[in-house]
Amino acid sequence: MPDTLTPNQPPAPTLTLRGAHLVGSVNLPSARDTLRTVATGLGAHARRVPDGEVGERFHWILFQGSRFEAVDGLARVGDSPVVVAGFDVRPHVLDGTVPAEDLRFGPLGYAAAALASYADFVALRAAGVIAPGTRFQVCLPSPLAAVTTFVAPADRAAVHPVYEAALVRELEEICAAVPAEDLAVQVDLATEFAFVEGANLGGGAARAWFDSGAGGDEGVVEGCARRAARFAAHVPEGVQLGFHLCYGDVAEKHFVEPADAGHLVAMANALVTALPRPVTWVHLPVPIDRDDVAYVAPLAGLALDEATELYLGVLHHEDGVEGATRRLAAAAQVLGDRVVGVATECGFGRGPSDRTAALLDLHVAVLERSA
């Protein structure tokens, strides 16, 4: 006998799905390969396409260590390199030869990479591979990420403004070279959640210098959001702006498993409150083992403008369409008929390259199943 609704039982809520979002990293050989593959695989489902964070950006911010090492006035801690994925991740300290405010960073590599990839974007659009109206997505870390990784705790507060200014210069170079109507900028917040959760990244619980719980004068969420928003405010209004909120992706594992989406919602709300300009999209992860309403319940407090696109990272290669459907069903009980888009939890650039096509297909399958 087919299932029927009992009297007075309302139908189960369902989300309206629209659009796929790629967080940034994609494991393909080049930016041109990534742009072509994404544009072909997702078609009209993708409003923006990233370049895959290829080359030295493959391991997110680890390549920034060499930029800190090149700055007069900073010195590596320890005599022997500490190598992770081929990069020396030893932190730096102020060596006393240059005042912190006079430190000078050279090019960080983000603008050069973006401009090279944008040339590929333009060529592929001219060839009809990328649809008109699709935007070129540039993904940048918050300044806090590299400073936390490559500066010893005692000197982070002093170095952060100088590195932030260098990253702003990279952003401004990108915005000057890429027409506003072609550009979308995503700011990645991952290190922030290590601070929010007090995660142990080696050496005890992570604490930000501004955290009131560790002797600072700001709440940790508000302090993280204020600094990220200060950087993101340099994105011109004609350029789309989005945020990827992240719990890390080392060997496909989080640095801590969130109890629920509460801290994600608090951060998203703090960001939109702190920013003087509209936010185009926000991406939130949903862990693979959380298809329960309890995890997504805090989404009821999400204070995004109706025009802001919400992407849920419900797609996991391990359980495909069925797993995504369960997680979306839980979210529907909280969000009702809100329009949302789908995504993976994080970028999939550090997974096997032969998984890429199947993950793109998964985005399409979930979207078309709901159509």
Please characterize this protein's 3D structure.
With 371 residues, this protein is α/β, with parallel strands linked by helices. The strands form three sheets. An eight-stranded parallel sheet has the order 1-12-11-10-9-8-7-2. Strands 3-6 form a two-stranded antiparallel sheet. A two-stranded antiparallel ribbon has the order 4-5. The two termini are 26 Å apart. Helix 1 (31-42) runs parallel beside helix 11 (356-370), helix 3 packs parallel to helix 5 and helix 7 (220-232) packs across helix 8. The protein is globular. It has one domain (16-62, 97-370): TIM Barrel. It has helices at residues 31-42, 65-69, 110-126, 143-150, 156-177, 191-197, 220-232, 262-274, 293-296, 320-335, 356-370; strands at 16-20, 48-50, 74-76, 83-84, 87-88, 92-94, 135-141, 183-189, 240-245, 281-285, 309-315, 339-344.
Brief summary of the model shown:
This protein is of the alpha/beta class.
Topology:
Blueprint: E1 16-20, H1 31-42, E2 48-50, H2 65-69, E3 74-76, E4 83-84, E5 87-88, E6 92-94, H3 110-126, E7 135-141, H4 143-150, H5 156-177, E8 183-189, H6 191-197, H7 220-232, E9 240-245, H8 262-274, E10 281-285, H9 293-296, E11 309-315, H10 320-335, E12 339-344, H11 356-370
Helix pairs in contact: 1-3, 1-11, 3-5, 4-5, 7-8
